């Protein structure tokens, strides 16, 4: 199974997934990393693990549709079976959704449908929640919406800070995103 990871930022989830592949826990290969941000740290991590990396930004195109058409063409050409969003901070448009039905998953650092968007951890923390967590889901055309695959929770400590919560959330993500991907790959490989 050929997996593509799309990311816009740091890439810690990218690295956790690639390490799980290297340990043989995910029966697939990370065939490519795409970033819409040329300066994103995830590109350095891709180089470190020798994962072929591609990067272009919407502003290089006349329209968002053309940007997405180029991304779609890349993923189709590379015969990608599963698209994993790992901190990819853009809405996926209809072209990609139609080309890859039930093949695009996302991770979000809150218990959706609460606190979608760019700042899930901070928004939940500032709201004063006592429990938060992570959500892994198939995507649709909304922001952090679509059928939920898995959720994991964290209880906030009385002396929790935003920083300690961020660390806990990221640990949970690195533990569970590879496991969920491994399950999806296993199930789908058995269907073929
Ligand atoms: C992760 O916490 C992920 O859940 C979040 O971006 C971070 C990326 O971290 N995604 C979203 O907020 C999606 N709305 P990383 O670049 O270190 O993997």
Automatic annotation (TrEMBL):
Domain of life: Bacteria
Annotated catalysed reactions: N(1)-(5-phospho-beta-D-ribosyl)glycinamide + (6R)-10-formyltetrahydrofolate = N(2)-formyl-N(1)-(5-phospho-beta-D-ribosyl)glycinamide + (6S)-5,6,7,8-tetrahydrofolate + H(+)
Annotated positions binding (6R)-10-formyltetrahydrofolate: 64, 89-92, 106
UniProt-annotated catalytic positions: 108 (proton donor)
Pathway info: Purine metabolism; IMP biosynthesis via de novo pathway; N(2)-formyl-N(1)-(5-phospho-D-ribosyl)glycinamide from N(1)-(5-phospho-D-ribosyl)glycinamide (10-formyl THF route): step 1/1
Site (Raises pKa of active site His): 144
Enzyme kind, highest EC tier: transferase
Matching Pfam families: Formyl_trans_N
Keyword Transferase found: yes
Entry EC no(s): 2.1.2.2
Amino-acid positions noted as binding N(1)-(5-phospho-beta-D-ribosyl)glycinamide in the UniProt annotation, renumbered to this chain: 11-13
Keywords from the named record: Purine biosynthesis, Transferase
Occurrences of domain Formyl transferase N-terminal (ranges): 1-181
NCBIfam families referenced in this protein's UniProt entry, alphabetically: PurN
Function in brief: Catalyzes the transfer of a formyl group from 10-formyltetrahydrofolate to 5-phospho-ribosyl-glycinamide (GAR), producing 5-phospho-ribosyl-N-formylglycinamide (FGAR) and tetrahydrofolate.
Family note: Belongs to the GART family.
Official protein name in the record: Phosphoribosylglycinamide formyltransferase
Species: Candidatus Enterococcus willemsii
Gene: purN
């Amino acid at each position: 199974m050929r997996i593509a990871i799309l990311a816009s930022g740091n890439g810690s989830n990218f690295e956790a997934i690639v390490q799980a592949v290297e340990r043989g826990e995910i029966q697939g290969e990370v065939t490519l990393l795409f970033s819409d941000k040329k300066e994103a740290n995830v590109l350095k991590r891709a180089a470190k693990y020798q994962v072929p990396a591609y990067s272009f930004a919407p502003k290089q195109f006349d329209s968002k549709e053309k940007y997405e058409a180029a991304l779609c063409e890349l993923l189709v050409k590379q015969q990608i079976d599963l698209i994993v969003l790992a901190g990819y901070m853009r809405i996926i448009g209809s072209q990609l959704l139609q080309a890859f039905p039930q093949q695009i998953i996302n991770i979000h650092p809150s218990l959706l449908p609460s606190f979608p968007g760019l700042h899930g951890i901070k928004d939940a923390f500032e709201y004063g929640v006592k429990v938060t967590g992570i959500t892994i889901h198939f995507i649709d055309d909304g922001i952090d919406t679509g059928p939920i695959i898995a959720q994991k929770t964290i209880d906030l400590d009385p002396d929790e800070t935003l920083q300690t919560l961020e660390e806990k959330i990221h640990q949970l993500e690195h533990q569970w995103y590879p496991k969920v991907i491994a399950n999806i790959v296993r199930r789908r490989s058995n269907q073929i």
